[in-house]
Amino acid sequence: MELTYEYNLKLTLIKSGMDFTSDSKKYLSMLNESAENYNDKSNGKQIIVNADSLGEKSVILSLSSPVQLEQPGKAIRLFSKYLIDTYEEFHEQVTQGKLFITSEAAMVEGEAIDPESIDDAEFVSAIVRALLNKTSGTSNDYKKNRRTINRMKIIAKQDGLI
């Protein structure tokens, strides 16, 4: 069985002159066509547009790759280039050679999660509660909290925070 790496990327338009929700069917069609073009040319990487995540200025793409990507956001250059070259609406949105600001996103039960929408203080408070909560709840809750804390430790170490 081949291992596949999955990334959820939130693409946010840099300029404010376009609203995806004003004609969501039209923009989804353009985004999906760009994804198909990308998938045909990308050496095993695949993009799927998450239609439910379409906001005024943003959309979440699911990117899968047979190899781990150090900077998944760079993998969407071909996707953006196709939009810019094919559709005047997107061409007009380019600022300093860029169309989108890319950030990582997450999906939970089909719902897109924007990390920027989570308050830092709320996040830190949840971590502290998970670290200090060693006795209450079920054994499964404790194991789940420990797995979560351990994953955060790994990310912090990989990113040089500790």
Keywords:
single chain, 162 residues, alpha+beta, Alpha-Beta Plaits, 5 helices, 21% strand
Task: Set down the secondary structure blueprint.
Blueprint: E1 5-13, H1 24-41, E2 46-50, E3 58-65, H2 77-86, H3 88-91, E4 100-108, E5 111-113, H4 120-132, H5 139-158
Antiparallel strand pairs: 1-3, 1-4, 2-3, 4-5
Helix pairs in contact: 1-2
- Fraction of residues in helices? 40-55%
CATH fold group of the largest domain: Alpha-Beta Plaits
Low-confidence stretches: none
Distance between the termini: 34 Å
Work out the strand percent. Answer: 15-25%
Report on this structure.
The structure is a single chain. The protein is of the alpha+beta class and 162 residues long. It has 2 domains: 5-113, Alpha-Beta Plaits; 120-158, no CATH class. It contains 5 helices and 5 strands, in the order βαββααββαα. It has helices spanning 24-41, 77-86, 88-91, 120-132, 139-158, and strands spanning 5-13, 46-50, 58-65, 100-108, 111-113. Strands 2-3-1-4-5 form a 5-stranded antiparallel beta sheet, with helices on one face. Strand 2 and strand 3 form a beta hairpin. The protein starts with a strand and ends with a helix. The model has no long low-confidence stretch (mean pLDDT 81).
Q: What's the short version?
A:
With 162 residues, the protein is of the alpha+beta class.
